[in-house]
Amino acid sequence: MISVQEALDLILAQSFPQENEEVDLLDAMGGVLAEPVKADRDAPPFHRVTMDGIAIHSNALKENSSFKIENIQSAGKAQQSLINSENCIEVMTGAVLPKNTDCVVPYEQITLADGVAFLDSNEHVPYQNVHLSGTDAKTGDTLLTKGQSITPAIIGTLASVGISRIRVHKLPKIAICSTGDELVDLDQEPEIHQIRKSNAYMLHAALLDFGIKPNVFHLRDDKEEMMDELATLVKDYQILLFSGAVSKGKYDYLPMVLQELGMNKIIHGVAQRPGKPFLFGVLPNSMIFGFPGNPASTFVCFHTYFKPWLRQYLGLPGRKYTAVLDQDISFKKPLTYHLLVTLSIKEGSILASPLKSSGSGDLVHLAHADAVISLPLEREMFHAGEIFPLNPLGKNLL
Amino acid sequence: MISVQEALDLILAQSFPQENEEVDLLDAMGGVLAEPVKADRDAPPFHRVTMDGIAIHSNALKENSSFKIENIQSAGKAQQSLINSENCIEVMTGAVLPKNTDCVVPYEQITLADGVAFLDSNEHVPYQNVHLSGTDAKTGDTLLTKGQSITPAIIGTLASVGISRIRVHKLPKIAICSTGDELVDLDQEPEIHQIRKSNAYMLHAALLDFGIKPNVFHLRDDKEEMMDELATLVKDYQILLFSGAVSKGKYDYLPMVLQELGMNKIIHGVAQRPGKPFLFGVLPNSMIFGFPGNPASTFVCFHTYFKPWLRQYLGLPGRKYTAVLDQDISFKKPLTYHLLVTLSIKEGSILASPLKSSGSGDLVHLAHADAVISLPLEREMFHAGEIFPLNPLGKNLL
């Protein structure tokens, strides 16, 4: 059996054609930039007043501590000129610094009386309270690069350069397929030997978190039926996420059927718990992630294998997070142990507290987990205070 | 001027009627549970087989190491019974453990020939590879509590108990109002003394991240017009977020107009940078968050004051994150300094690296910030390795 890292390397080595699409600015929120963005003007585009007060020429400070107000320069008005360098112009935050001035003294440091501003002190320097044109960027500078995750501040930056439509990496078209004759849907009352579908909903919600709207199917434990349905799905979808039917059971037809449909099986079995029977393969136009059907197995494999692949596909950088284990743990099998944990932050450190769980079929405790930490297969004892790789069970950490 | 903590305490002390609504299961993703959720059956509902293999009665192991296969118990089928306790039943993962059996031996540990299973060893114990009924929860147990943030695993849990509609805390109805005559919208080419609206887009995107779809307005620097428009908005919206017009400028009519409309001004000015002129007030049916108009001021105040209020309103727990400053910083004003940083995780610690920014008007650098760390006003020097409060500039951390 291969290791977790070997499995991940095999998955990330698969190339897959990436597409872009142009979307409205606000629809790009949470997406990934598919093109760099340049400044169309200097930022700021003019010498910009940053405090409400008066603008003077600093040369006048040598002999003068009171300034007659010539005019008002408000934000959004064309630049005015100071006519007499002994005078001043009242200025508002966001306004253009008036011509023939180079210094803004805020209202807090002056007294106004009869159209004259009296300075509390003459200790002012050129260009104080002025945000100089081009300080943050010059026209043509690259402000944002391809592959940046689009946050609210990036939406603001795009707006500031006048972009109302933007190219983003297109999200893949995904089918979720649950399997297993023991599953019933939410509108049915389960018999004693049946359980309700939960993995398909969990995966659906996890994809929504990434902005992906999947289609959801259910495959019965019937080889012919599975073959018919999958023959269409592998043509219609770029990614197929399966839950269940990948193990050694008599009715685990999935790997066989997919191979008959042309799948190149790249991974089947990883030295890990949960998720040992994980299946990964490629077809000419689609990729297969076959997650073992227990809830924790499905969800841990989704975050361990699918999420890094999706991030790479979208052009996002890889992530290497770590956390501090907060209690001793022993695990004696030669498997990487993906331990379910809750996270907290204490004194700048990320602490991982193991959840008491009954195993991979335990959805109840999975719902309380923030992340997994991956304990290496070479060891059996893991001590409080040691640092291990961390994978949040969400799009982001906490 | 009051401190950041005093301002936050004043805001969080404001009570505001909370509402619930019932939504479809998948629409609840990212929301907050408004009701506890109980188990409608034991979890698992039956003794559940966790490996593909054979089920035997462990008593037979004393004398027997080969077992004739009587039957197959597949997942989703009603429980079978082992007739002869010397025999076995083939069982599949997810199936009910057959009657008169108590032990599952996986295929990996047996050899099958002519309808008989030969055990590699007799070292098996009762209830191995069986997930016992009710281990994770008993019927009636509280699985999820009011106020939990709805994650994919919680969607899975809700599905598992048959919930297709769920009560969540209703998101508030929010208006974003940008102000300032220097601003033009994206479809206009700005004059040299004008800039494009960016804060309204940034706030809009930030609210979308919380699942809130705000309405956006622009108020001109005209007192009468502002009065007319706001008279309606304070009746129609629960929360009004303003960007700009809260400082000492001649045309910063906003605080005055809001007070004339009946606002109880609770905060105007906080000992912080950026965001010193921050305004907060309440009207009979609405709350006012007046963010100073520079991009960093607006966005830092949104995350410092509005986000904790929103989390409290939705019933989410307060958060106290911290990070390790990774270089020396000096800041000599008696103000809390909200320092823009990028974050990285090294050896389980969250490292905060200060961004070189030209100040609160600098949108270009704000777009690269992951978070702010808040440096206390009592001090002037802050050293690498020290730990300070951390506030991510997003819904989540990283």
List the helices and strands and how they pair.
2 copies of one chain form a homodimer.
Chain A (H helix, E strand, L loop, with lengths): L3 H9 L7 E5 L12 E2 L9 E2 L3 E4 L9 E8 L14 E4 L11 E4 L3 E4 L2 E4 L10 E2 L10 E3 L7 H9 L4 E5 L4 E6 L3 E2 L10 E2 L2 H11 L5 E5 L3 H14 L2 E5 L10 H7 L3 E5 L3 E2 L5 E4 L4 E5 L3 H19 L7 E5 L3 E2 L5 E11 L2 E6 L8 H4 L4 E5 L5 E2 L4 E6 L6
Parallel strand pairs in A: 5-6, 13-16, 13-17, 14-15, 17-21, 19-24, 22-25
Antiparallel strand pairs in A: 1-12, 2-11, 3-10, 4-6, 4-7, 5-9, 8-9, 18-20, 20-21, 22-28, 23-27, 24-25, 24-26, 26-28
| Widest sheet, order of strands of chain A | 7-4-6-5-9-8
- Derived structural class of chain A: alpha/beta
Strand content of chain A: 25-35%
The residue-averaged pLDDT of chain A reads: 96
Low-confidence segments of chain A, given as residue ranges, are: none
Q: Distance N terminus to C terminus of chain A? A: 33 Å
Oligomerization status of the protein chains: homodimer
For the largest beta-sheet of chain A, the strand count, sense and barrel status come to: 6 strands, mixed
Residues in helix, % of chain A: 10-25%
